[in-house]
Each structure stands twice: as structure tokens, then as C-alpha cells.
Amino acid sequence: MKIIILGGGASGLMLANILVKNHINADIEIIEKYEHVGKKLLITGNGRCNLTNTNITTKSYNNDFGYNIAKSFDTIQFFNELGLLTYIDNEGRVYPYSLVSNNVLDILRENLNNIKISTSTNIIRIRKKEQQYELTSDSNQTFKADILVLATGGKTYYKDSNSYILANFLEHKVVPLRPALNYLKVQENLSSIENIRCKAKAYLITNNQIIYEDYGEVLFKKEALSGIVIFQLSSIIAKNAYNNYLIELDLLPNMSEDEIVKHLKKFPNMIGMFPKMINQYICKVANTQDPLIISKTIKHLPFHVVENIDYKTAQVTSGGVDVNELKDTLESKIHDNLYFAGEIIDVDGLCGGYNLQFAFASANKVAQDILLKVGTLNEKK
User: Fold this and answer.
1) 136-180 confidence digits (pLDDT tens)
2) Is 113 exposed, middle or buried (0-12, 13-18, 19+ CB in 10 A)?
3) Domain map (residue ranges) of the chain
4) Cβ contacts of residue 372 below 8 Å, gap of 6+?
5) Class assignment of domain 2-179+316-380?
6) pLDDT tens, 330-364?
């Protein structure tokens, strides 16, 4: 019995680990397009590897399918049992205690010394031939699998990803793709406040309706807004990219407009409120010295969204293989012994460890179903 895991990222490595840990009665091979496995894993969480989040809810993902998969796996326990110490911050984000992503990759690779990993191997065609899957690389190498798992990731980071073409070869629909968890380009010129950060409550508005709100740090770029709270808004936009969107920032969410007016009447120069350049930007937008209008501007500072930036700067791909074509085990409803795991599936979560949680949890779902089908070496004995 031969199992091929196509993709050596977070979900592919996790899947192989679980199969090996349970002494699967089969040969396993990971085929990775690039020269090293786990390249994207190394840059997650700004190089600290935000493994998961302790605050998973239905609102964490774009659909219930993804949420149900994500909540089914204890990522912290899994890594603790492998010897990785973990740290949980005040927002529920979970990191390796070292805050170094290499530790996570090293632990995942350590248990895979006895399985074959073929790197720098670009699979360009897959076809089902009788009861097997035949994979062909761009150098005309041929691989055959009894069980095939596509864990090839999305379009983010790897701009030349062919994950979805491979899914199409196997007759699977792909929900339209958009970059998500990304900074947002806006119409306003922000060069005067470029690289300044502030805490704010952010409102995402379309058709004069607030459709999402969140609080967190905002980073001003020359022509864009960034920061975790903006990443969250970009994820919402990605799901319906063709509306016109307005972002309003409330720079003082703990004060009412009346309270701000009273403060401005006492301190009209605004010293002590925000960084000097932010003060000047607010006055420029308000275009008046009237405390009422300045107060309203502070509570509703407007930015008109132009677009999500490209996939290379995005953290995750919105869209992917249609979940309606997958069983709860992540096996294809179209072909037996074909599975999908990770970012290739139309599941994306908010920023804060939710997407890696889905990658690991989906790998576990696939692993448990394969183990039931194939059995273990201990059972064979």
C-alpha cells in the first residue's frame, strides 16, 4: 500500500507525523515542489509560528465545515507530547515557548527520518488509472499511489502555485480565489502618517451598513492600512470582493463624541491625544477647527478601500476546493482514496493561529480515516 502526500507544508508534515506515530501499515512518500519542506511554516506568526488559538468559535472561519474540523484536534497537546513547550498570550494565540518557528519545523521533521521525502519535484498532472493515482512531474517522473492526499497549499507566498489545477484534473470544483489576511490599499494618501501605529476600533462598511467591527493595532502605510485588525477586515472583503467598502476608524473608542468635544475645548491644540502627525492628519480631514467636526472625525476617520493587495503579501487564500464535494473525513465524494488537507480547501480563518489550526486539524482528520482503512503494523502482527 502506497500513500503519497503531495505537499510538505504544515498539513502534509502533520499528516505524515500522525501516520508514522501510529505505525501505519503502508509506505509513505511526501512530494514537495520546492527545495525544502515547511518553508511557509517558518514565516508564520512573523517567524514565531502562531500554532493555534484557544478562542476558536464559529466566527473564526468562513464556514461551519472549517470550524467543525478545526475544533476536533488538540494542537497544543499534540506538540507538547512531542516535546515542544508552548506559550499562550493574552489574546489566546499559541506559540512555541522559544518564539522560534524553526523549533516547530524541526520537531515535525524529526519523526520522519524513515519515510521518503522527494523535494524539488513539481507535479504537473494527476490522473486516476484503475484503482491508483498516477502523478507526473515536469521532468517526466512518474509516481503511483493507492491513496493520494493533496496538501499543496494555496496561492499565498507561492505565487506559482498549481494546487487548484491539480484539483481540476481530479474533477473538483474550485471556489473563486482571493487573497486574504492582507493589508488593504486605500484611496487616501497616507504618506504624512506612514509607519505610524495606533490602537483603534475599525468598522467595515458597505451599502451604508456596518458588516464587521474589531479592535486592534492599525499600521498606516503610504497608500494602505495594515495591522492585525485590518487583516481581519480583509478576510471579510475577500469573501465578497466586488462591493465598495469603507473603513472607519474610531481612534478613541473609550470616549464619546461629547467627551472629546469637552477635551478639545479645553485643549484645542490636541497635544496629548495622538502623535503629532496623526493630529495634523485629523485636522486636515476635518478641514476645520470646529471641535464638533474634529470629534466626529476622530470617531469616524474614513478610508476608502481600493483592493486587497496581491497573493504574495497575503497570509492565506480565500476560496479553494469546494467543501460540498468533500466528506466529513475530507475524502473526496468524487474519487475514493483521494483526500484534501489544509489551505487548498475553501476554508479560511481569522488572523491569530486559526489557519494553522485548520491545517493541523484537517491533517488529523485525514490521518484518522486512512488509519481506519489501512490499519497499523501492530494490527498486522
Assistant:
1) 999 999 999 999 999 999 988 766 778 999 999 999 999 999 889
2) exposed
3) 2-179+316-380, 184-308
4) none
5) alpha beta
6) 999 999 999 999 999 999 999 999 999 999 999 99
